[in-house]
Design the sequence.
């Protein structure tokens, strides 16, 4: 048997001769309508194939030796910048006292004058004043404690700031610098008095270990006294230095880099939205008190959150290799060159109390008693969740799924169109026969 006849027997699409075909007006209309429907459905299938969704996953965070950034912007309208100190500590034993790197202090005008920022050039309380008249061999006295390691001249305290550092190193209270020649020469007490009614805004970022820890903003220089972390509160509690309180407004507080606007819009539109509101619940939080001895505590649960763009592939970085965040500038940690983003979300609960003790009867809770003592200020204690959220960009379907959908659309539409055309043709034929009788 010839090869042609073998394939002919396998033909599943038998044909009719041209003379046996009947073309009708209704068939042409159904054909045009079916083609339009096919094009419309195929376009919808193409749009669905091109659509990118963000698929959230929850996994165990296996990272080790990592660090994270904390960015803040907090205003204190009733405490001058000179009295505010930012300290950071964690369970690993690492402490950062008097954090300055990456942090800016902006002096604010008194609240009665609107609390506007003061020109930055007027902010340096410890401006280096020329002391040439003292001679090149001058060695300032430290008034008891040894000179700090950061002194400009070994074994000497040349400035008021160095004397204060020396006092803090041995856990001594400093006060306003009475009787200290360096402070009197720099008019430290007069400058401190001039700032007593001013406020302060602390803004910037710093880096911490990704372990349980806390950071706080409290008055006075901090130092360790035995196993205790204490602050020099003399100037803060001195009535002659002004009516200070820890009324504050948290303009912004976040863990990790800022989300780009386009990413916020893209992810925030999903069913499980990821927006700045969800990331930073403390934004625009304000607390008011008239008590100088008052303590605010915020307890935060931090959850690592990653965003991986479409087509992202891991680069094989091992958790044992540690973290290279110390080699990037503040604000850039977590921003990948491939479009990936490593950041954190957090939830928060808060607590406040007067350091004088007593109950919360003013708030309707007489049974709630507070302990006496503590450090006034604003404290943030953060705990790291063992879970990690991954937001991964994915297409809704593969290209194979797209082709399958197109075939289903074409085949299904033509099949239904053929059935409709057949029904219309048979109906018209029967009606014609009835009229001929």
Sequence:
């Amino acid at each position: 048997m010839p090869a042609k006849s073998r394939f002919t027997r396998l033909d599943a699409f038998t044909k009719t001769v041209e003379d046996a075909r009947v073309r009708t007006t209704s068939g042409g209309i159904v054909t045009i309508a079916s083609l339009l429907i096919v094009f419309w459905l195929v376009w919808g299938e193409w749009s669905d194939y091109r659509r990118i969704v963000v698929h959230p996953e929850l996994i165990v965070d296996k990272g080790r030796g990592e660090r994270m950034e904390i960015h803040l912007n907090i205003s204190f309208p009733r405490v001058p910048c000179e009295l505010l100190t930012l300290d950071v500590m964690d369970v690993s034993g690492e402490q950062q006292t008097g954090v300055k790197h990456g942090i800016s202090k902006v002096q604010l005008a008194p609240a009665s004058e609107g609390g506007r920022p003061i020109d930055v050039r007027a902010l340096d309380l410890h401006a280096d004043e020329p002391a040439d008249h003292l001679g090149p061999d001058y060695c300032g006295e430290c008034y008891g404690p040894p000179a700090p390691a950061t002194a400009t001249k070994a074994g000497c305290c040349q400035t008021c700031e160095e004397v204060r550092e020396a006092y803090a190193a041995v856990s001594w209270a400093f006060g306003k610098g009475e009787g200290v020649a360096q402070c009197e020469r720099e008019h430290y007490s007069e400058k401190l008095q001039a700032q007593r009614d001013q406020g302060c805004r602390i803004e910037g970022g710093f880096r911490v270990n990704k372990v349980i820890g806390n950071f706080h903003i409290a008055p006075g220089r901090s130092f360790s006294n035995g196993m205790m972390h204490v602050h020099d509160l003399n100037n803060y509690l001195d009535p002659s230095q002004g009516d200070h309180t820890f009324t504050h407004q948290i303009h912004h507080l976040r863990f990790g880099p800022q989300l780009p606007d386009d990413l916020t819009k893209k992810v925030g539109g999903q069913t499980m939205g990821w927006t700045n509101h969800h990331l930073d619940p403390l934004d625009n939080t304000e607390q008011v008190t008239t008590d100088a001895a008052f303590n605010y505590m915020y307890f935060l649960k931090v959850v690592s959150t990653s965003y991986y763009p479409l087509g992202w592939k891991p680069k094989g970085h091992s958790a044992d290799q540690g973290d290279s965040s110390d080699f990037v500038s503040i604000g850039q940690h977590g921003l990948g060159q491939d479009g990936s983003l490593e950041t954190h979300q957090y939830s928060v609960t808060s607590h406040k109390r007067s350091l004088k003790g007593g109950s919360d009867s003013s708030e309707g809770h007489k049974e709630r008693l507070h302990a006496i003592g503590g450090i006034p200020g604003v404290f943030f204690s953060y705990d790291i969740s063992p879970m990690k959220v991954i937001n991964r960009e994915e297409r809704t379907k593969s290209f194979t799924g797209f082709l399958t959908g197109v075939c289903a659309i074409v085949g299904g539409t033509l099949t239904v169109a053929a059935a409709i055309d057949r029904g219309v043709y048979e109906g018209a034929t029967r009606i014609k026969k009835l009229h001929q009788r």
